[in-house]
Amino acid sequence: MEAIEFQEFSFRYNNLKEYTLKNINLKLNIGEKILIAGPSGSGKSTLAHCINGLIPFMYEGEIKGKIMVDGIEPHRSSLHDVSRYVGTILQDQDGQFVGISVGEDVAFFYENHNIPKEEMVEGVRKVLTEVGMLDYINETPQNLSGGQKQKISMAGILTSDCEILLFDEPLANLDPASSKKAMKKIADINNRTKKTVIVIEHRIEDVLEQNFDRVILIDNGEIRYDGTPDELLALDLLKKYGIREPLYIEAIKKCDVNITVEDKISYIANTIKFKEALIRNFEEYNMQQEQRQNRELLTIENINFKYFKEQHNILENVSFSINKGELVAILGNNGAGKSTLMKILTGIENQKKGSVKYLGKPIDKWSIKKRADIIGYVMQNPNHMITQNMIFDEVAFALRNRKYDEKSVEEKVLKVLKLCGLYKYRNWPVASLSYGQKKRVTIASILAVEPEIIILDEPTAGQDYRTYKEFMGFIEEVKSAGVTIIMITHDMNLSLEYSDRAIVLSEGKVIGDGSLFSLISDEVLVNKADLQQPSLYKMAEIFDIKEKGAFVAHFIKKMREGFVYE
């Protein structure tokens, strides 16, 4: 029996000429775990909005064909009625919070359904405990980190009795360990309740680890694939449509090994069949250490910080240096203090103790405006940065504030839009873009003013792999020109591929500083910082390889070489 059915379904937003979804024919069965994947702008979120009723009640447009959700037509019903059947975690958590406190927000579903107060309190405490956020029950949601907000959203959906649960990019802001726990929790909900679970996510490796039933691949508003994970991984469709294959799959294919459906390669343990081919490839590896200059550009000395007097330190005796031309990844658990540290570097917050030095001289008394000339900060949530209605105007905003003439503004803006893959959208309203595309707009607006240091807070969150590679290729060009990059991220694959160094934070303290290939072998550090050893490392364990970090480094290097999309 179908939970959701689309018949010759098409949808066009009122402000666009072209249809975003085109002739969709799809049946999603009751009790299935389904992954919907596709490049940015492919129509994934639009499909989700058609299911949960946000289309047409929040996003208006033209509908053709038929959609049925648990026996009702969402667009002919009401948003309130649809919410009884479909529970949703939105990609943009800030747009979903309704309560003043975490507890009030999680209780929203209970209040809407007149649940008795004692039962409500017990239920809220139970789900917050499940996601590890009970200690924040009285905190304001907006004061939390991106990952903590995601956990609160997860708690909210756990209170729902909806038969269909829809998760739009649920892993976007979570640290690696929390991502693993979140996906396990989603799978557990399905296994325990037999509810239909639909996950829209770029990070398919984390999703497929939980034995999903189906993968639906969407591109340009059309369904390109609908089948099992094992069938999909045996093909090259993910790469073709700009989605990253699991790391261990990439490594196997780099060894010119043929993968078949019968190999059931969605289970990493089954890679043992390919052990000989991968070890032979690894033995050809000869690691060469790259020589880098060590001129200190930015120095952080004994930084201590807390938001309130009675609060414990968010940052405690944090010290490290950043060298000119480096790309440094800042890693750590949700709430470890990563984003707070970056706010101190930019002057948004002022440390209680310690000093920040630029080229050996303190900048602690510099204004935010003065620091912005050398340090550009791209925030985690694009909606916290965007102030203009049109894309061109948003990217031009800082330049115009600096009194550039309009000809120079146009030259710089168009150059950056091309580099960030946004040129064709230059005359679009920002509201027409996906979350990932908005992220690129904010990055473009910072790059336009050409700072010496760029801080990127989760730069690739919500972006497909093709855009990820194109953008990081551009970041490498910026870096090669001498610009220093500081990157806050939960994406271990991104850090392994691109960072020169990793600085690991936990509970406001630096617990690791060095090559990430070495750091991932430190089990204590990995567990304390809620990191996750990549699937390549797990495969090295399965193969009983002693030099696991070197094994990972070898195949990461091979993946960086000869990257081509069909």
Q: Briefly, what is this?
A:
With 566 residues, this protein is an alpha/beta fold. It folds into 3 domains: 2-244, Rossmann fold (3-Layer(aba) Sandwich); 245-284 and 536-566, no CATH class; 296-535, P-loop containing nucleotide triphosphate hydrolases (Rossmann fold, 3-Layer(aba) Sandwich).
The CATH topology of the largest domain is Rossmann fold
Strand proportion: 15-25%
- Rg result: 24 Å
State the fourth-level CATH superfamily of the largest domain: P-loop containing nucleotide triphosphate hydrolases
Summing up helix and strand content along with how strands pair, one would put the structural category as alpha/beta
> What oligomeric state best describes the polypeptide chains here?
single chain
C-alpha termini separation: 38 Å
Task: Explain what you see.
α17 (about 405-420) crosses α18. The chain has about 575 residues and is α/β, with parallel strands linked by helices. The model has no long low-confidence stretch (mean pLDDT about 90). Strands 5-6-7-3-8-9 form a 6-stranded mixed sheet, sandwiched between helices. It has 24 helices and 19 strands.
